[in-house]
Amino acid sequence: MSSKLIRVALVGLSANAITSWAATAHLPYLQSARGQTQYKVVALLNSSKEAAERARSHFNLPSTVKTYGDPAQLAADDEVDLVSIVVQSDKHYAAVEPSFRAGKAVYVEWPLTESLERSLALVGERKGPDRNIIGLQARLSPVASKVKQLLASGRIGKVLDSQVRGFSAMGLGKQPGTLLEGPMEVMFSQRAIGGNHFSVLYAHMVDLVHSVLGEFKDFHSQLQIRWPELGVVDKDGVQLRTRKNDIPDLISAHGELAPGAADIQDGATLSVLYRSGTPFKGELPYAWYIQGQAGELKITSPFGPILQAATKPGVKIELHDYTTDEVTEIEWESEWKNWQKELEMPGCRLVGDMYNRYALWYQQEDKEAAPVGGEWPTLDVAIRRQEELDRMLKDFDRASQT
């Protein structure tokens, strides 16, 4: 077993970033008591060396932490083992490609890149097992773990069908068809950036379902752009300008589940619906139903469909037993590990579990054996999910041109 600390470079740690995920989800684990027994932050990469230096100062990191503004220079640093990419989607490729080509391990937040084409160009023809990390950490949620346990126990019998419905108003104004002003207004209106309600929020939602129930054997999808022009508003709802929008904001997919991941009846159907914006007033923004022969599960969240950032009290798992006709709420919070409970933000707990599982594998003598701390989502998973999304977009674009 190796006792060597894994030397990490954080890409995108900034007090002024569009998203603060590096600061709120990655850094807290790396600086936690457990994280410091496994990792050491040794470098930062930002848009410039000066920006990296400002981040080092802002987050009170040691002066020994190296600062870079050039991805190629980071890739050439042989004192870095793992590079964590936490920047805007369309900047992923440029940030990660030199380090990936140099043979460094990488942790890339979802999506891998802004498109399937770019992701395939990045990973190329790899050989051997993939032990890199993709940020689809909702798969490690204790809610997902508990649902898997319930299915494996036979409490609801063989799965017959499943439906999931999600809504999210992230980055949107209070009125339908509006965006809040700021950097995210561009991301949420320009598909080419690759970080939007379809490619991020829908993808996270459906990936969690696939991780529990398995992939589609085949499926059909229907996408719609309800608002081809969006109003950009300030925090008070006053419209400032308009923006053209080419991103689907209503997504529906349904198909037959492939066998293997759970005890599923042949021909079992999965139906998925995602809509940007809020649900009908008074209704929950996330509901997932799994019907079995002997009962049905319902998973709900008042925080929306993104469990990797909102696995916290309020999320419910309920079981309707057909024999007794009783509904029971299933406790899931005990699934948190003790060290996770010391981390306040739920998103940090799941990102921390990704780091923890990777570190435990890194320390084990037999790297070909199954990871002792459990599997994590890899770049292979990222490609599989982007293939699904790419097919949906291409079908939508073809239909729109006829």
Automatic annotation (TrEMBL):
Domain Gfo/Idh/MocA-like oxidoreductase N-terminal span(s) in chain numbering: 6-120
Any one GO molecular-function label of the UniProt entry: nucleotide binding
Entry-linked Pfam families: Gal80p_C-like, GFO_IDH_MocA
Key words of the record: Signal
Top-level taxon in the UniProt lineage: Eukaryota
Organism classification: Eukaryota, Fungi, Dikarya, Ascomycota, Pezizomycotina
Protein name: NAD(P)-binding protein
Signal peptide segment: 1-25
Occurrences of domain Gal80p-like C-terminal (ranges): 142-301
